[in-house]
Amino acid sequence: MLTFVFLCSCNNNDRLIKEIQELSGCEITFPDGYVSLSSNDSLSVDSLLTKDIKVVSYIDNLPCTSCGVRMLHAWIDEVKEIDSEVAYVIVVQTQEKDVLFENIDSMRLPCPLMYYDTSVFGEVNKLDVLARNKTFLLNKENKIVLVGEPFGNEKLTQLYKKTIASLEEEYSHDSGGMRK
Fold first, then answer.
1. For residue 130, which of 147, 118, 146 has the smallest C-alpha distance?
2. Which residues of 114-134 are buried (b: 16+ CB within 10 A; e: fewer)?
3. CA-atom Rg of the chain in angstroms
């Protein structure tokens, strides 16, 4: 499928490229054992996981859980600009469970979080990668189509939009015009 190489002016270019190549086309698995956290009772992770197109961001070992939760709000606002019909799945793994749980209601996030108290999500999906390679666009088979953090990067944001539109068109033809 489509792969985008996000290059930056740092010493990790070779590692970034290698990780993107290794992740592209891999299937992401959502293991049991997560807690769905939401400030809105009508939102559930399970309903997001049934969507055909998903943007998944994996946040592990937050150095500051409350800072990370505040960052999530800004991230979700920005990601909704890409396509409001796409499922946005944020997977969080932190040892500061109490801080995360305390902050979730006050953040009023427009989507639920998947919380794991261990690194099972990262281990199952072999996500020992750089932070900028922990955001993925998944197709309906949960295979990685794009790798990279599009936020703050207009070219990558446009590539996400274009790829999502292409997937939507493909799935609309496959299902006779109906999309999940």
1. 147
2. bbbeeeebbeebebebeebbb
3. 16
Gap between the Cα atoms of 59 and 29, Å rounded? 15
The CB-side HSE value for 152 (13 A sphere, CA atoms) comes to 6
Q: Which SS3 state, helix, strand or coil, does residue 14 take?
A: helix
How far apart (Å, rounded) are the C-alpha atoms in residues 146 and 179?
Answer: 20
The model's pLDDT over 141-159, given as tens digits with 9 standing for 90+, comes to 999 999 988 877 888 888 9
**Residue in the block written with tokens 């274009």:** 162
Average pLDDT, the chain: 79
pTM for this prediction: 0.82
Q: Which of 37, 140, 150 is nearest to 87 (CA)?
A: 140
The rounded distance, in Å, linking the Cα atoms of 169 and 146 is 17
Structure tokens at 169: 């068109």
Q: How far apart are CA 90 and CA 112, in angstroms?
A: 7
pLDDT of residue 18 exceeding 60, the answer is yes
First to last CA, the chain: 21
